[in-house]
Amino acid sequence: MTGAARGIGAAVAARLAADGNAVAVLDLDEAACADTVEAIREAGGSAVAVGADVTDAESVATAVERVAAQLGAPTILVNNAGILRDNLLFRMSEDDWDAVLTVHLRGAFLMSRAVQAHQVEAGWGRIVNLSSTSALGSRGQANYSAAKAGMQGLTKTLAIELGRFGVTANAIAPGVIETEMTGAVADRLGVTREEFFTEAAKDVPVGRVGTPADIANAASFFCSEAAGYVSGQVLYVAGGPRA
Ligand code: NAP
Question: Does residue 109 sit within a domain?
């Protein structure tokens, strides 16, 4: 479970642990994973903290080996680590483009390549990739929308290549979810987080913004035994067809 120190990743990690899985809580800073690990253990689950940079092949290889040694072969992978570097196209730097594409796409590629070896050997696996409604186009997010559309293409290809080994791959495309990532957008825009989320909720058919638990519910389904005939799909979890 990548990017699991906080936000959506922490909620999905807790849910997968409650479903009976031993969970590797992976994030850039191992110490930052402590709260997520502690919460899972307090609830009676099993978890370990793993510090790794998903953009670095060596770091990924070391992390996946460590997970296999400590928890057993990883057969479920959730590619959730992500960053934002928003700007209108004419102001977007090459570094901002590269950083976003690298964390989301190269990160998911490296993690999937490392974990599929274990999944193929086990003859069973689940991959869940975090896309976004931004994949459909989003002002100020040329880099992020390209990365999140890319996650959907990656997901479908993983489904096609790995299906014969009992591995499914699906994507979740959240709308606005209340986390540090979206809270920081409010800070940048100079409005309070409460104002930002209240305003965002007005555009959502069900009348509220999402919570990390909304995404954890979808991830739990995709990772379940019951979802074995569902693969290559993109599920928009956005309170409507498009948030
Ligand atoms: P978040 O609170 O910012 O959490 C993302 C986590 O990923 C952070 O702990 C971050 O660590 C970690 N991370 C960043 N770069 C990494 C790297 N190279 N290696 C390992 N970990 C890394 O974000 P969130 O809102 O929970 O979002 C989680 C995912 O859902 C992202 O992929 C995001 O794009 C997607 N999503 C979110 C929303 C939303 O409304 N929140 C909507 C659609 C999609 P640091 O803090 O150390 O950087």
Answer: yes
- State both tokens at 89: 């196209």
Which pLDDT tens digit goes with each residue over 158-168? Answer: 999 999 999 99
The answer to whether residue 243 sits within a structural domain is no
Instruction: Find the CATH number of the domain harbouring 41.
Output: 3.40.50.720
pLDDT digits (tens, 9 = 90+) for 135-158: 999 999 999 999 999 999 999 999
205 located within any domain: no
DSSP string, 2-51: BT-SSHHHHHHHHHHHHTT--EEEEESSGGGGHHHHHHHHHTT--EEEEE
Atom of ligand 1 nearest to the CA of 184: 3
Ligand 1 proximity of 3 Cβ (cutoff 6 Å): yes
Mind telling me the catalytic residues? 144
State the residue range of the domain holding 168: 7-175+210-237
Q: Ligand 1 center to residue 193 CA distance, Å?
A: 18
- Ligand 1 geometric centre to CA of 179 (Å): 9
pTM equals 0.98
**Is the C-alpha dihedral spanning 166, 164, 57, 132 positive or negative?**
negative
Number of domains in the chain: 1
